[in-house]
Amino acid sequence: MDRRMTNDAPSFDEADESKLEVGKPKDWAAGMPGVYHSMKPAIEQMGVGRTVKTMLALNQKGGFDCPSCAWPDPGHRSAFEFCENGAKAVTWEATPVVVSSGFWAQHPISDLLERSEYWLGMQGRLTEPVYKAAGDDHYRPISWDDAFSIIAKKLNSLASPHESAFYTSGRTSNEAAFAYQLFIRAFGTNNLPDCSNMCHESSGWAMGQTIGIGKATVSYDDFAKAELIIVMGQNPGTNHPRMLTALENAKRAGAEIVAINPLPEAGLQRYKNPQKPRGVIGRGTEIADQFMQIRSGGDMALLQAISKRVFAAEDKNPGTVLDHEFLEEYCHGLAELREHLALVDEAAVLEATGLTVDEIDELAARYLKADRVIITWAMGITQQKKGVATIKEIINLLLLRGNIGKPGAGASPIRGHSNVQGDRTMGIWEQMPPAFMDAIEKEFGFDPPREHGVDAVETIHQMLDGTIKVFVALGGNLVGAISDTQAAEAAMQNTDMTVQISTKLNRSHAVVGREALILPTRGRTEIDMQASGEQFVSVEDTVCAVHASWGKVKPVAPNSLSEVAIVSRLARAVLGDKVQVDWAGFEANYDLIREHISHVVDGCEDYNRKVRQEGGFVLPNGPRDSRTFTTPTGKAMLTVNALEYIERPVGTLILQTMRSHDQFNTTIYGHNDRYRGIKKGRHVVFVNPDDLAELGLADGQFVDVRGEYKDERERVLRGFRLVSYPTARGCAAAYYPEANVLVPLDHMAEGSKTPISKAVIVRLELSAVQEPSPASAAAMSAS
Ligand code: SF4
Known about the structure:
This protein is of the alpha/beta class and 783 residues long. Helices cover 36% and strands 16% of the residues. The structure holds iron/sulfur cluster.
């Protein structure tokens, strides 16, 4: 047997935080080190053959879609259409290391609880269904039939379908997502929390209300046509690295780029494209023409200040600055916005942003000079209390100069997980509109529930109070991803049953209900053979392009099932003949699911044909395609938003959670964050040197990071090393999921209810013991 086919080799040890090294942050990203850090783990874990096979199929025509972020593929592809993080995600999934049957006897759940996310993930791919009975401390292997029958019995014993919740991760394909939501609605509930609740929900809310669609209004090609790209609250170098190639191309075509962020991230400073000589032997490309080091939560004030300057420029040269024709024909609310912005207090803007008048004037001048502007954003904007209002201000600014619905211009939320947007398109939302439900009823002949279900935060509340008794997750790691780790874990442990459909272990498998099951599923990299032959799935990227994904390597676990197969069999076991849906047909041939998608999902007509076209197809988008805005007024809405920003009590800091470079969402690939100079550890808190001095603290000391929220729960991270770092004044940062413990469950963005993970008020206290905290998961999450 291949040595890698066992779970005892290679060895993936827990981090030893006492070995932590802190060096200088980098001012450039990627280059040859990026290639080295992509290929080294791939070859070590998968061997040369499997590495070559997977990497040459990654993001290629006829290959599979990257299981990591949702950045789009360019039309003209090179042989290497992936980045370091894409390579790490493929290695993580396609690894031949597997969890053996003996593992479960060796590691009781109480032992899994002591392990870190890294250790759990590195045990390898799950190979067989396992079940933990009530009162048992062990998962034990069972058959698929027994697993489905245990779940069906439990779900059918509930007094109401609303006593269950069904979570979805953004990895799930369109086909699996459509079948899953259909099953859940046929079962009788809209309790469909998803990972989008924790990331771009604010974007969906703000854009839906202002322009009628919660998706990007740009295509991939628009980036190369833009004259100005403003990147807000986002770190592309780590989170969607190939965006740097699009920014580099835009830059070389003459665009200016402005980066607005509390931290100076390497990728936005300089990019060394490893596929270009200038990136290998040269200096690479300077990305940001202007870096604005904004205080966390100050973006709304900045955007209002820029829009105010746009009005001022128009007053100075009437008829030349605003896009009057566009505003007249397509927009609503101009007079109200003008009146409101006139009252914006410049002193408040400076206080909120921490920026100077000159910096704000410079950005305004760039905006006024450019005819085609794209604004992109990510969690730095959405995970704020005023996240929805801030995105509405982005839309205001774009609309004033007609920057929506023309080439090279638009609004572009950058989605995190590869198919998080597609899952929503397929109906994974607790609030799908009546038209979608009508289409389900017409297509399948049953009336789906119409009352809204619960989102992720409400799911935690209802598990805590005992209303939700069964939790099923199609992928993901809810307790790792959501705020208030202690509450999330207590909620999970208060259920009757948890079911995780997963490729690998994570924290959510260790925090279980009275009964618990893990169902091993196949990954996107793997060949999916069903009764009618080899299957493909489809996904939608962050700019609404849908394309096919074909697995390329032999599944590592022959007893695992595809997500579609698991959903179809679960539906059959739970529903019996309650609804007339050909679940067995779904599993045998995914074309049947796509045929139903054609009839139910707007924009997906003739799906089977269109998705097979070279490069797939782009979903219709009213604002982008024809300046059609499906709001209540039929026009794009300029909105008035009362300015609010974070006022920090003396002696506190505003802490944001963030990923390291060796991490994708809650998946930890390693213990380094090389762009920020961190090696062999994660228990660090980054603080501006002037703040350290003001607080009487110093780099290298160990502190307890204490959340400042006044409720019954104490929220503390203990023994984290201080790292003197050029964060914005008053702002600190620490890695999640560790730092999620500091974010209270009800600390949510107004409207969208997205956890406010980018603005937690904390106090730093010198630790009693000046030593690193232990590495165990339990030590991180319990205070
Ligand atoms: S940019 Fe995103 S989608 Fe593209 S290869 Fe990298 S991680 Fe994968």
